[in-house]
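Contributing new records

If you add data, match the layout below exactly. Sequence lines come first and carry their own label; structure lines follow with theirs. Keep one chain per record. Anything else will be rejected by the validation script.
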Amino acid sequence: MPNIWEVCSKANNYLCVQQADLRFFDGRFEGAKMAVDWITPPFDLLNKSKKVADFTSWQIGGRAFLVSRRAMDAIRELCGDDVEFLPFATVKRTELFAVNVLRQMAIIDWPACSADAGILRGGYALRSDVDHLPVLFKDPGTPSTTFASDELGRIAVERSLTGLQLADPRKQLGRMIVRGEPINEFPGL
């Protein structure tokens, strides 16, 4: 079985975006195109004194993340039409785009998951019959989580893209974050 990663960003190390109204994510970033009706929502900046990363945190636990043009170009090369990039804002001279992952793939073995899987991020049981993965995708049962294959990590390392973490979705990531434990497990990120 290929490696399956949960896409996370380094919110403590870089500037991050806080959503003004969390209801904004309701019914959005669930695998359907949004470009026609897209309007950047109101937001606040946190860690303003820090640099803007290529993978920028947008509301911890939100259904999407933000990327710079450099990261967008790299992802577009790998994903083609599986991802939609929505213009978000220019922050500290860095254009940011919301990443709307359109590709869906059922990778979670829901009957084998514990009752609290996904509540505190992670803790998923993964299907053992998966033999090929798209670069970026969502499981239809958990639209708030974006998953990736090794290819995303490889290109991020190769192009020195900042801010990306790839975590093991089988682990209780929320608990690890609260404890201050590192969650990235992809070498070189």
